[in-house]
Amino acid sequence: MNISLNQQVALVTGASSGIGAAAATALAAAGASVVLNYHRQAAPAEKLAADINACGGRAIAVGADISREDEVQHLFDKALEAFGFLDILVANSGLQKDAATVDMTLEDWNQVISVNLTGQFLCARAALRIFNRQGIRTGVSRAAGKIIHMSSVHQRIPWAGHVNYAASKGGVDMLMRSLAQEVSHQRIRVNAIAPGAIATPINRQATEGAAERKLLELIPYGRIGDVKDVANAVVWLASDASDYVLGSTLVIDGGMSLYPEFRDHG
Ligand code: BGC
């Protein structure tokens, strides 16, 4: 299988670190021009764009808070201004604000829902408007556009102390599947990835030292995930190699969602 994203333009939100940065790097390596969105971390996003350009790729970094309608509009306008088209959206930005529910502030609830769920809606809506105007770009891709939502194993696995995050990802699941049902006939493919424990800045505390050993008890495959495990799947879902895949969630979690504690019990 030869995957090429030549002539395609991809926009990745939350691309300054972690899964977003790895996805953007992999999309660029597969030939796509890449728009790297960041919120506060301009320097790493600018550096990644410069690295991609230095390797013969095409990339720009654009700052935007994806939970704000006007900033999302600005982000997508910049993408079109730079590259003329949009073929792939990776709606990846996400954050955690963990607390026991009795202590969780409304602000922390709202912020997580705004970025993780509303932000994915706003970016998907902006991408769809462009895909609809463009139609199928013959010779570039069989689809009129591809959207990849970044979800989590916690769209399914309840997570005490993280009700805002789990609720946001449960919402992403229904956002993705309802949207896929709505636009598949326009040959727009909407899918999701549900990562488990991938070593990134979002979960540094849980994936290092003594906490890592405890976390590994939940992962039958015996290792913490690497951002490349997810980035490879992003490239596949963005490409025509997955052209018949619609409304699916690809779980990438080393078996975390297989209820591993039931192997010897229950
Ligand atoms: C969270 C990580 C967590 C993982 C598995 C992810 O969605 O962002 O912090 O380690 O789920 O629990």
UniProtKB/TrEMBL annotation:
Record keyword Oxidoreductase present: yes
Residue ranges constituting the Ketoreductase domain according to the UniProt record: 8-204
Name by which UniProt lists this protein: Glucose 1-dehydrogenase
Similarity-based family: Belongs to the short-chain dehydrogenases/reductases (SDR) family.
Pfam families registered for this protein in UniProt: adh_short_C2 (PF13561)
Protein keywords: Oxidoreductase
One GO term of the biological process aspect: monocarboxylic acid metabolic process
NCBIfam families, A to Z: PRK07231.1 (NF005559)
E.C. numbers: 1.1.1.47
Entry-linked Gene3D superfamilies: NAD(P)-binding Rossmann-like Domain
Annotated InterPro entries: KR_dom, NAD(P)-bd_dom_sf, Sc_DH/Rdtase_CS, SDR, SDR_fam
GO MF annotation list: glucose 1-dehydrogenase [NAD(P)+] activity
